Amino acid sequence: MRTADDITRREAIAEYRVVGQPPEPDLEGLVQLAASICGVSTAVINIIDDRSQHQIAAVGFEPNVCAREDSMCAVVFRHPGHVVVPDARVDDRFRDNPFVTGEIADVRFYASSPLITPAGVPIGTLCVFDEEVRELSEQDSRALALLARQVIDVLELRRITRELGRSNEQLAHFAGQVSHDLRNPLTALVGFLELASDGLESADAVLVAEALERANGAAGRMGDLVADLLDFARVGGRPRRSAIDLGSLLHDVVDDLDAPIRASGATIDVGELPRISGDATQLRALMQNLLANALKFSAAGGAQPTIEVRAHELTAGWRITVDDDGPGVPAEQRERVFGLLERGEGADVEGLGIGLSTCRRIVEAHGGRIGIDDAELGGASVWVVLPQQ
Hints:
By secondary structure, the chain is an alpha+beta fold. The chain folds into two domains: 4-164, GAF domain (Beta-Lactamase, 2-Layer Sandwich); 237-387, Heat Shock Protein 90 (2-Layer Sandwich). It contains ten helices and 13 strands. It has helices at residues 4-16, 25-38, 73-76, 98-101, 138-201, 205-234, 246-256, 258-264, 280-299, 354-365, and strands at residues 42-48, 52-59, 65-67, 83-85, 109-116, 122-130, 242-245, 267-270, 275-278, 306-314, 317-324, 369-374, 380-387. The strands form three sheets. It has a six-stranded antiparallel sheet with strand order 3-2-1-6-5-4. The longest helix is centred in the middle third of the chain and has 64 residues, at 138-201. It is elongated. This is Sensor-like histidine kinase SenX3. It catalyses: ATP + protein L-histidine = ADP + protein N-phospho-L-histidine.
């Protein structure tokens, strides 16, 4: 049975992505140096999980995999410190080990230093061995320990390099998300200011006051969106949960989409919506994207769209649906359209398919699911299942 330490170790090993891969030249260079310093012909870097010992780089033999219970290093690697055994045949820890008895090898001299991650997790050893009995000087023992730390340095450098590459990709996605999600409240802000200007020209104080209030609301939502999306990027997409009135949230979304709603003549029918737990800014971005997509694709056919938003209570959460009367999404395309920059075939609609990719990330960050079905209105029904928290 795997222990908590085993699980932590497996997770740490997985981050380095060296098991099952061809030996890295930098790691091979370190084992060759270890063998040379210690005056032996064989050295190896062992990565040890809860089942196996993985030899990821070696000199003097071809790296392989063996069962953890057969490993000499598995006996000592979890206890930081150097191990030097001049003759393994007379050491109680190793005398019956198959690497000593001749079943696998005939090891006599054995020395190792543990590989400890910066988080303090032991993941394996750098070890040297020989079929002849020998000693290891204190200076060479310290050198072996230093090389073990350099093995970890190489693994960390590889990991950080990958993460930087992934961060650049996420930054590009994030930039697309920000520009996409800011477009609607910005358009609403401009529209409300234009209404206020019209009211000033006609001396309609009520129109001016109402338009300025709505413009102020749109500006405030833009500020919240920028701040929270930046926080969203910093924390890797983890939502900050609070109690949310989904009906009030939808009211803000409809206000931000005022311009395209009026331009298309759309009817937005919002049913009774619940209070839920979630990140207000992320869920507003979610509903904004779903409603904007429904408007955009329904209006593409030239008719005045009808869109319905409904909530259905489940045993352990809520199912939210956004239905439209547009052309719908063919069944074979319903998964593909959630990919970044993907749209349904034949969708002659301005704009990139960033919205549904953003929606999936937000829903999954909340522990939910999202998909597309046929709507009773004749178009697409995009559904979101959010668990109770």
